[in-house]
Automatic annotation (TrEMBL):
<dbReference type="GO" id="GO:0140359">
    <property type="term" value="F:ABC-type transporter activity"/>
</dbReference>
<feature type="transmembrane region" description="Helical">
    <location>
        <begin position="20"/>
        <end position="44"/>
    </location>
</feature>
<feature type="domain" description="ABC transmembrane type-2">
    <location>
        <begin position="25"/>
        <end position="251"/>
    </location>
</feature>
<comment type="similarity">
    <text>Belongs to the ABC-2 integral membrane protein family.</text>
</comment>
<feature type="transmembrane region" description="Helical">
    <location>
        <begin position="56"/>
        <end position="81"/>
    </location>
</feature>
<feature type="transmembrane region" description="Helical">
    <location>
        <begin position="172"/>
        <end position="190"/>
    </location>
</feature>
<feature type="transmembrane region" description="Helical">
    <location>
        <begin position="136"/>
        <end position="160"/>
    </location>
</feature>
<keyword id="KW-0472">Membrane</keyword>
<keyword id="KW-1003">Cell membrane</keyword>
<keyword id="KW-0813">Transport</keyword>
<keyword id="KW-0812">Transmembrane</keyword>
<feature type="transmembrane region" description="Helical">
    <location>
        <begin position="226"/>
        <end position="248"/>
    </location>
</feature>
<protein>
    <recommendedName>
        <fullName>Transport permease protein</fullName>
    </recommendedName>
</protein>
<dbReference type="InterPro" id="IPR047817">
    <property type="entry name" value="ABC2_TM_bact-type"/>
</dbReference>
<dbReference type="InterPro" id="IPR051784">
    <property type="entry name" value="Nod_factor_ABC_transporter"/>
</dbReference>
<dbReference type="InterPro" id="IPR000412">
    <property type="entry name" value="ABC_2_transport"/>
</dbReference>
<dbReference type="GO" id="GO:0043190">
    <property type="term" value="C:ATP-binding cassette (ABC) transporter complex"/>
</dbReference>
Length: 253
């Protein structure tokens, strides 16, 4: 690793974050859809949905947070694709900087911008009646899960951004990811689903992540859900990282 890797990465992070703050519409756009869905499900459908809690926004919030992350990482793919198309990545490679710092700058920008979006959504949820009496440690655990989930999907986005042939192709991959929470326990308990749908919902990553976050925030026993959630997040992140670096290095040669 280049001895200047961290300083180079901080420069790349600063560059990408300046783009974010100059165009806050990306964060606003990421927040609008999940907040609109939260309002719709709580105030329109919430009364008809039977869950294990009287406060539906408490049940709903974990899934909404994952949808926000899945929406936000599409902008990472878009920014990487545009840098590649404009020859900016090649220009950076001709400079005496760590080559991987360019990619890491985009990944950390995704993490920071998604954290901002999640904070905004949680604030709206608090206004809508979300409450959690747990202490600092459960919140730190929830934060850790969300960070790992964001990093995992961001590396998936990096693959799409670096290998996409068009803007639409680079960002379209996020649509199935946004749809996954709908076939999970994010909105309704899975025992209300048909057997085939329930089998898929119970064994896909979103359900275990949602259940782990929900249990932590409601001060309930987490059980194996947290370990399954961590295994999914870390596994996806490692596999996506390996493939993203291969695509990135192949394009840099």
């Amino acid at each position: 690793m280049n001895k200047y890797f961290f300083s180079d990465m901080s420069v790349m992070l600063g560059r990408s974050m300046r783009h974010i703050f100059r165009s806050m519409d990306t964060i606003i756009t990421v927040c609008i859809t999940p907040i609109a869905m939260m309002l719709l499900f709580v105030y329109v459908f919430g009364g008809a949905i039977q869950t294990s809690t009287d406060n539906y926004v408490n049940y709903l919030l974990p899934g909404i947070l994952l949808i926000a992350i899945a929406s936000g990482i599409s902008y990472t793919a878009y920014r990487l694709f545009m840098d590649k198309q404009r020859g900016i990545i090649e220009r950076f490679h001709s400079m005496p900087i760590s080559r991987s710092a360019v990619l890491w700058g985009h990944v950390l920008t995704s993490l920071v911008s998604n954290v901002i979006s999640l904070i905004v959504i949680i604030l709206v949820a608090l206004i809508m009646g979300f409450r959690s009496s747990v202490g600092v440690l459960p919140w730190l655990a929830v934060t850790g899960i969300l960070v790992l989930f964001t990093l995992a999907l961001t590396w998936v986005a990096a693959i799409a951004g670096l290998s996409g042939k068009s803007v639409e192709g680079a960002s379209a991959f996020s649509y199935p990811l946004i749809f996954l929470p709908f076939i999970s326990s994010a909105f309704v308990p899975t025992d209300s689903m048909p057997k085939a749908v329930r089998a898929f919902a119970d064994n896909q990553p979103v359900t275990s992540i949602v259940e782990a976050i929900r249990s932590l925030l409601s001060d309930q026993p987490v059980g194996n859900d947290i370990w399954i959630a961590l295994a999914w997040c870390i596994g996806i992140m490692l596999v996506a990282y390996i493939f993203a670096m291969r695509v990135y290095n192949r394009g840099a040669t």
